[in-house]
Design goal:
The longest helix is centred in the C-terminal third of the chain and has 18 residues. The chain contains eight helices and five strands. Helix 3 packs antiparallel against helix 8. A three-stranded antiparallel sheet has the order 1-2-3. Strands 4-5 form a two-stranded antiparallel sheet.
């Protein structure tokens, strides 16, 4: 997605429209359009139609997560363990030009940014820059898409994929295991520990 960037040359400020692209494997701002000085930019804007409608899309969190996922090779790692057991289904299914690994990744990004069901995933995705960043039409990504491709990962392979991803995370980010943080968010209730009458929430 394009963004504005300012450069100062010989004491004068100039504006550019740039787009983040990978150059030699590293993200770099690439100039798409030179806008000139602030006065020149104002002149351009004053020539725009008065009834111009603009719409914004969530970008930062999406781009950051995609960048990390690409760095860790998450989709490719998951695809190594895909082995569909369904009849009339290829072992490495692709649906709507997305592999199972890419589908898992899209679901995970959705959970990171906005907790929603698989049925509601596309409505959320439309408010983001995902389609632009991936250059993929996400219009057909419904709950059935998720279920079909997620079903292609055998249960016994889940832990194998998790282990390889975690090994990559520890290696890539030079993490240590001398400290463990445990998130008990999903286990919190307002029910007193000493309440023995409750039979639903039990420790």
């Amino acid at each position: 997605m394009a963004s504005l960037m300012q450069k100062t040359v010989k004491g004068h400020k100039y504006w550019y429209i740039v787009e983040s692209r990978r150059v030699n494997g590293k993200p770099r701002p690439v100039v798409i359009e030179y806008l000139g000085t602030a006065d020149k930019l104002l002149e351009r804007l004053s020539q725009c139609p008065k009834n111009l409608n603009l719409k914004s899309y969530a970008y930062g969190d999406i781009a950051g997560l995609l960048s990390i996922a690409q760095r860790l090779g998450i989709a490719a790692t998951i695809n190594k363990y895909i082995d569909s057991r369904r009849k009339n289904f290829p072992k490495q299914p692709i649906r709507n030009n997305l592999t199972a690994g890419a589908t898992f990744l899209l679901g995970a990004i959705g959970r990171c940014c906005m907790m929603t069901s698989k049925r509601g995933w596309h409505e959320w995705a439309k408010t983001t820059a995902l389609e632009y960043l991936l250059q993929v039409d996400l219009g057909k990504i419904d709950s059935q898409h998720f279920w079909d491709l997620m079903d292609a990962l055998p249960e016994e392979n889940i832990s194998k994929a998790e282990r390889e991803i975690m090994d990559t995370v520890f290696k890539e980010f030079n993490l240590e295991t001398d400290t463990l943080f445990y998130d008990a968010t999903n286990f919190f209730t307002f029910i007193s520990t000493t309440n023995t009458r409750n039979t639903l929430a039990q420790r």
